[in-house]
Amino acid sequence: MKNDIIDVLVVGSGPAGLQAALHAVRKKAEVAVFGKLDASSIHQAHVENYLCVAGVTNGADMLAVGVAQIRKFGAEIIAEDILGIEARDGLFLVRTEGGEYMARALVLATGTSRKKLKVEGEKEFSGRGVSYCVDCDANFFRRAKVAVVGNGSAAVDGALTLLNYASDVFLIAKDLDIAPELAAKLKESAVQVKNGVWVEKIQGRNGVENIVLDDGSTLAVEGVFVELGAKGAIELAVNLGVALDMATMNHIETDRQMKTNVIGIYAAGDIAGPPYQMAKAVGDGCVAGWNAANYANKLKREA
Fold it and tell me: Which residue, 262, 301, 237, 290, is CA-closest to 21?
């Protein structure tokens, strides 16, 4: 680091974090991004619904371009996880795997930690048939056989949505628990419900080919959507007193400038709420980085 105090410290190296860094560094702020690129949900994804990107683009390649851009303008990217953050005399003390840093402003762009099935084959086929976002990836499974795994409304809603794309949609639920209205929609739909069973294994070669259920049966599918609900990566925010949305407690509340209720802390991307799309994450990052840099620069002028 050039200085003892970083102007804008960005937590998260996905699209929101990198865009925040790009706009902050262009405002003449010293910027550091903490995070591991392969931890971003887009790293193993394929992108085709992003403006001005033709065809299908590899997410890892897009992140690599973003890193090169922010480095070109002088921002640093440090592949370390954040262990803790605390307020300290109007600044923020950030503890990482490799040391401690002080920052004038924070941009929280950690994304959300989606719940996993934790079964054999899930990690191996992530991005190659296993998905955690119906809205993001449904179009990749047109005329394919797919399974949605989950017991709640998110899983049912995902299965109903997939009827517009896939040839066959199976809903795997151990103990389906949904509102009567949604249950009625599910019953009237073409979704093939397998209630009382769960996934034990996901199998395939170059991609998903079938799933093994805990009753011993095998189901031939080309895609598996895990819809167990998304839990926001909010531990750092909560420890700082950052307010969450009152309805779900799953994301951070921000205003139009991506400010949180804590002065000097901004949030961007999935952690700031749905829709969980790269276009929204990049827009959030632009606004958060711009305003965080303005705040940090103001602190320096007043010091």
Answer: 290
Q: Do residues 173 and 194 lie in contact, with contact meaning Cβ atoms separated by under 8 Å?
A: yes
The per-residue pLDDT for range 145-177, each reduced to its tens digit, is 999 999 987 789 889 999 999 999 999 999 998
DSSP string, 97-129: SS-EEEEEEEEE---EEE-----BTTTTTBTTT
Per the listing, tokens 């400038």 go with: 257
- Of 112, 101, 83, nearest in space to 9 by CA: 101
Clarify whether residues 45 and 130 are in a common domain.
Answer: no
Last residue of a domain, one of 172, 206, 226: 226
Provide the angle, in degrees to the nearest 10, between the axes of the packed helices 15-26 and 59-72: 20
- Token representation of residue 132: 């955690």
Q: What are phi and psi of 6, to 5 degrees?
A: -80, 135
Domain count, the chain: 2
Alpha carbon of 249 to those of 12, 152, 185, 243: distances in Å?
20, 17, 27, 9
C-alpha dist (Å) from residue 205 to 119, 121, 128? 16, 10, 10
DSSP code for 52: T
Residues 167-215: pLDDT tens digits?
999 999 999 988 788 899 999 999 999 999 999 999 999 999 999 999 9
Residue that is last in its domain, among 226, 250, 267: 226
**Residues 4 and 102 sit within 8 Å (Cβ to Cβ):** yes
CA 238, 240, 243, 244 torsion-angle sign: negative
pTM: 0.71
Domain identity same for 188 and 254: no
pLDDT in tens, 262-303: 999 999 999 999 998 999 999 999 999 999 999 999 999 997
